[in-house]
Amino acid sequence: MGTANTLTKEQFDAIGQELDAIRNREMADLGEKDEKYIRKLIKRQRQLEVSGRGLLMLGFLPPAWLAGVACLSASKIIDNMEIGHNVMHGQYDWMGDPAISSKGFDWDNTCTNTAWKHTHNYEHHTFTNVINKDHDIGYGILRMSEEQEWEPRFLFNPVLAVIVSTFFQHFVAIQSLQLENYLIYKTKTREELKEEFRPMWKKMRKQLFKDYLLFPALAGPFAPFVFAGNISANLVRNLWASQVIFNGHFPEHAEQFPESVLENETRGQWYVRQMLGSANFEGGPLLHLMSGNLSFQIEHHLFPDIPAHRYARIATDVRAICEKYGLPYHTGSMARQTLSAWKRIFKMSLPGKPKAKQDNKGPLGGLRAKVTRLTSATDSDSRKAA
Amino acid sequence: MNATTQNGSPFQKGLDRVLQSRVAEVLAYPHGVDRYLEALNPLWSVKGVRAEVDDIRYLTDDSVTLTLRPNHNWQGFVPGQFVQLTVAINGKRHTRCYSPANSVHRADGLIELTAKVHAKGFVSRHLRQQLTVGDVVRLSQAAGEFALPEERPERILLISGGSGITPVMSMLRTLCDERYSGQITFLHYANSPADMIYASELETLCRQHDNVHLVRSFAQQSEPGELSGLFCREHLHTSVPDFAQATTFLCGPPPMMAAVEKVWKEEGLENQLFKEAFTLNTPSLDSDSPEGEVRFAKSNTTAVSKGTTLLEQAEEAGLTPESGCRMGICHACTCRKTAGKVRDLRTGEVSSGDEEDIQLCISVPVGTVILDI
Lengths: 386, 373
What we know:
The complex is a heterodimer of chains A (386) and B (373). By secondary structure, chain A is mostly helical.
């Protein structure tokens, strides 16, 4: 890891150029195969959804109920992750189809397209893992960094994490409200909150009405089975999606950064921050699909608007770049990353800064210090596009 | 008004009512009913016009004639009107306007579109070389002011040049089907007989209908046309001496249209001339120079291009478009470019001049650009 500590400005620039080259290569190659992939996937998802909802109508038969929940859960997971998340990143905007564009697509989730694009595409992807800038570090509910001041409520960190997971779609929907500013820090008024909540409630209401009133009502006397099936499918999706997302940035080796890294950050340094702050997990094609290819979180953060089914191939090149420059490439099995993320959740529930002050010790701490020093020293043109 | 409208069976009507209902909308929320229908059959849609390619013919070396079978949402057209045809080429959608050339009385309700294939014509080349029978394309409903009036004029002059023949061909075929009794002169300009689309059908129509007079003019004198060379006043005096009595429908390349318009203006007959420019009348934005202006169509603002990103230029012009990362990753600033070319700052690549979505923060205008903000 010695090289990581000695990355020069020129090396950051070189990394930037090599990654840009990968990006340009992939963008130039976009075409019919990407279109076929996403259209076929959408078709499969719609089939799963219709089958799931159909089977739940016969939910009084236990096998039909179970199969219905399985289909509807899979449908919601694919809709939210490999389709929705990726389409809303603009991965398919080049196709010119409003139904598959970042502007036009909406997902089977209570979060609105607009709110999501703000908190996720903009805040989280631009300021990835920068304390106080990336709200995804704990969503304002959990303590996920040594740099976050400990409060007594964080004693319940693991419990809060379970609650966040269980109601994940709703937390995502209201994430941009930054509820903690009203409830705890009192920097937001009730009126402001109400105003911001209005468009969110409009979408939440429709989703809840559809899943918990209309579809059950269509089943007549079997409404309770449909109701329970829909609750289960939403729960499965919530637990799965939150775990995949926790695994992307919460494992212990994923680096977090102080705000100072943003000053005059070059494109190369931005890329390096994305790599250090993200973690992949390994598995088969089905796992990658059901994770919306967020199992390639590193590649996703480098190239958020390249169609995600390409990440597996790009990963080889990214890994080679990491090796070349002695940068860590965080990856491991799904189980390992899950365990590591939860370890952090538990650790952060206790006060104290276990590792925070050891800035220059260990390969990653050292690198962080290096990035910080370099970014504040450099006079280059910041992030304002190439 | 339009004979090709298919009213559909009572079953179809009932189904439409169900699919357009509030309940269907909520059940399909948030994707919409169409997104489920198209998964079953690409031709199905609640309101959109989709059409299956029924036949492809090559009437000349540089043209392609498509026969399309539209779904039941097609509301028909008036001879002279155009439709927007959308096809996906290598995954990306492209839209072009074409005027149906068929008679509105065509019994099978199919639509015939003919495109001239230009060397640089990306879409027309695709239609000629890649499209196959059975493919499904998207269509708009017919539109356009250039249309045969419902009350047919007593004397009709149809003037066309090159592929501008299609809307007037529709008029001629429709009038023939109606056994229209007035006199029709069909004055057409082409490079050579081999280049003339619908040449043999026109001859046949002319033979079968005493009131149809076909006058062809080919660019080369050696070619066997009734006339030769480009449009001029003499052509009118020799072939259509009574043109002042006629209602005239004109469609062709811009120089020819200008020449015809000039004569009609001089004669004070402008209100008897109806015209369609088949090269769209968008301003010429083909310049590769960085100079030009940025027009923000929705806000009615124009700025002289400064060579900076469109996001910066929009903000300097006092607009507040949605934006985020300013580095091309978050797509918050994505908006519609209706005309003009832009350069992607990251790749240096220059876009096409087509209407498409672009990211303001990484796009620099190349020449004049029109944005829908």
